[in-house]
Design brief:
Elements (H helix, E strand, L loop, with lengths): L1 E8 L6 H7 L9 E8 L6 H8 L4 E4 L5 H11 L4 E4 L5 E2 L3 H11 L5 E3 L1 E5 L10 E2 L13 H9 L9 E4 H6 L11 H11 L4 E3 L5 E5 L14 H18 L7 H18 L4 H14 L9 H10 L1 H12 L3
Parallel strand pairs: 1-2, 1-4, 2-3, 6-10, 7-11
Antiparallel strand pairs: 4-9, 5-11, 6-9, 7-8
Helix pairs in contact: 5-7, 5-9, 8-9, 8-10, 9-10, 11-12
């Protein structure tokens, strides 16, 4: 069995060694790993670290083009039939690839599978004590559930991209990552894959991927108060909304999931970034309205009587919190 692991890197000399150690052959018997590190213009000595300590790793340079382009650069030269994308601070547990590759080899109709994962909060080595509690994506272990995956993604519930093993030919057929995006590139990739019949399944065993908490690195995929990134998130959802019907998703549930996600971003932004928030609310109303909002019985009743916007405003006025 073979798998290509593609790792974009930018200034991670202190962390990438942990990632590459986790990919050693001792941890993955029976799987030949082709490891491709794509540097995106690092200013530290990360490339020297990789070349000196891990001479078997293929190093590419993709200066300043961003992580999606780096992933596509790695995909273009990858030789294995299966692909795993990692960040340069992730860890892969022993034996993670074997069961996923065996499943893909036995099920030609399945183009991606995902496994178990945990998030951890550390700026150095991993220990069990550093694991963080986070909501987990559901285990969908049977093929033929692309619609269920789509509903999860429309509602803002995602498989961590680091936990997915892809069929290389499928990624090439859908042309890899969208390099125009500064945020949500992995979300867009999976939704586009769903629209192209990815047939993704969960394959559980005792292994897992360990994903470092990216809040430690403000440079990584975080919108914070950046209007440009919030705007791009909104434009991506508009594009997805425009494509739902052409891909056969004509019922109300996908629209309701998408509108709820957009509405929840409006709730988050309406005080800190009101100009962008207005656009989110406008689009939420266009997609599906009125929404059934979640919360205690009083909040839900307010939503039914007054509508979701007024219910949020009343709650904020009375409690001074959302």
């Amino acid at each position: 069995m073979q798998c290509s692991v593609i790792i974009p890197v930018y200034n991670r000399a202190d962390l990438i060694k942990f990632t590459l150690h986790s990919l050693s052959s001792d941890h993955h018997p029976g799987v030949a790993l082709e490891i491709i590190v794509v540097d995106d213009g690092s200013t530290d000595n990360v490339i020297d670290v990789v070349r000196t300590q891990f001479p078997h790793v293929i190093v590419m340079q993709n200066t300043g083009k961003g992580a999606p382009a780096a992933r596509n650069t790695g995909l273009a030269i990858a030789k294995s039939q299966y692909i795993e994308y990692l960040d340069s601070d992730d860890l892969v547990g022993p034996g993670y690839f074997s069961a996923k590759i065996k499943y893909l080899e036995a099920h030609s109709e399945v183009n991606a599978c995902y496994g178990a994962y945990d998030f951890f909060n550390s700026d150095g080595e991993f220990t069990e004590q550093t694991i963080m509690f986070k909501h987990k994506y559901p285990i969908i272990a049977l093929p033929g559930n692309d619609r269920l995956h789509l509903l999860n993604y429309l509602s803002g519930n995602y498989v961590p991209p680091n936990a997915i093993v892809w069929r290389r030919d499928f990624l090439l057929a859908i042309k890899g990552h969208d390099t125009s995006l500064a945020i949500n590139q992995d979300v867009e990739l999976v939704i586009r894959a769903i629209f192209n019949n990815v047939n993704m399944v969960a394959v559980e065993d005792k292994s897992r991927v360990l994903i470092r908490n990216h809040s430690l690195d403000a440079r990584v995929g975080n919108a914070v108060n950046e209007s440009r990134k919030w705007g791009q998130i909104l434009e991506l959802r508009k594009k997805i909304f425009s494509e739902l019907e052409q891909h056969g998703y004509t019922e109300s549930e996908p629209r309701q999931m998408l509108s709820t996600y957009i509405f929840n971003i409006w709730k988050m932004l309406r005080h800190s970034n009101s100009d962008v928030a207005v656009e989110y609310l406008k689009f939420a109303k266009e997609v599906y309205w009125p929404l059934k909002i979640k919360g205690n019985i009083i909040f839900r009743a307010l939503g039914t009587l007054l509508g979701p916007v007024k219910a949020v405003e009343v709650k904020y006025f009375l409690l001074k919190r959302d």
